[in-house]
Amino acid sequence: MLNAVTDSFRxxxxxxxxxxxxxxxxxxxLEEPRGxxxxxxxxxxxxxxxxxxxxxxxxxxEARVGIVPYGGGTGLxxxxxxxxxxxxxxxxxxxxxxxxxVYPRENVLLAxxxxxxxxxQEAAEEADRLFPLSLASEGSARVGGVLSTNAGGxxxxxxxxxxxxxxxxxxxxxxxSVLNGLTxxxxxxxxxxxxxxxxxAEGTLGVITAAALKLYPRPAATGAAMxxxxxxxxxxxxxxxxxxxxxxxxxxxxxxxxxxxxFLSEQLPEVRQPFADKPDWMVLIDLGLAAGQxxxxxxxxxxxxxxxxxxxxxxxxxQSEAQRAEFWALRERIPEANxxxxxxxxxxxxxxxxxxxEFIARGGPALARLADFRINCFGHVGDGNLHYNVFPAPxxxxxxxxxxxxxxxxxxxxxVDEMGGSVxxxxxxxxxxxxxxxxxxxxxxxAAMRAIKAAxxxxxxxxxGVILRAA
Length: 471
Fold this sequence. Notes:
Layout: H1 7-16, E1 43-45, H2 50-63, E2 67-70, E3 89-92, E4 99-103, E5 108-112, H3 117-126, E6 129-130, H4 143-148, H5 156-159, E7 166-172, E8 178-181, H6 194-198, E9 207-214, E10 216-217, E11 221-229, H7 232-246, E12 250-257, H8 258-267, E13 281-289, H9 295-308, E14 312-317, H10 321-341, E15 348-350, H11 356-368, E16 373-380, E17 385-392, H12 405-418, H13 434-440, H14 443-456
Parallel strand pairs: 1-3, 2-3
Antiparallel strand pairs: 4-5, 5-9, 6-10, 7-8, 7-9, 11-13, 11-14, 12-13, 15-17, 16-17
Helix pairs in contact: 1-2, 8-10, 11-12
């Protein structure tokens, strides 16, 4: 059983930390973007070093006080707030925001957990390198949260998730000991990989305080195109064709449906759209090529072959970096339009690539048996990750469907599970999907996860109730 923060606990912690580590607990630390969860309060602490983080964790372990790690607050599954139970310590990494070092010849960057993702990208660019992880929230998401949720983003097709972009981590474990794993090595077979255990653990097994991140050469030439495809199945054939023609130069491959374009027109009419008549389906393909290669020529050749094969019927190839940025602005503002409308239920799912067309074809009719909905299906089809979001019919609000929200989620996730997919592709489990993990998770995997949690955090102080139900 956990204990709440008390005056005595506050005094103990104040004796162990400098005054700069204590900050007022404002509303932002008790909210999450979708408004589904609200924090219970507690004590906000913002350590300035790994040693100070360790002092906080040791103090909480001694007093059996829960810890909620807080990064940029951008998570979408409620992992950054504790809605019920004894008031916890909210552990913000915002003061640990330094890029400690950059090693261009090694293609490695060391950053503290509170460093904002965009700052990592800028530091890499200053060294003429690329840190390829890119998210809509990169201006506020922090390194620790990105790793703790194993975030993906738009470039997973080429560079992988956050886990693939991390060589080593420094972390504070639940007993307050420091894991000094900030290695820059690419080969290190010295036992269990605790880095991969803590990445994606959402703060339930420890607090990541710094990371060694992989950098890449900056592409000498970039390009992008919006291509109208006949169907999701045609999009998959186009992806395979692009891989055959262009190889690893394909950085991103995004599927966008008509409903997303309709929502943009309705809510964000200032966003320029590439086609006068909105297509049922289109893809955004992005290239990063080596010196001597011409992205525009590569995309023109791809379009010509795809048109001959009946896969595409129209397209626009970016003629400048500004137009390429305009294409991406359209894609990145779709979630903003979604939020303005208000979804009944949003789903971050993945299925095997071959199953994408069937999933989309079956999903609509399955939901139509419940009520009249609008479905905005879009996402990173290059890696099988779809954002399958369900919205009210015109003239209604999500409040009109609140009684159906659970049934909608169940219908979508049942279909995902039937097709061998995942109910959480890149957002994590948090608090929102604990029941889903119990329903769809492999029993052996769940048993192993519970055993790991019990071994590393026997008191259950680390982000209680996230991923695994609190005891």
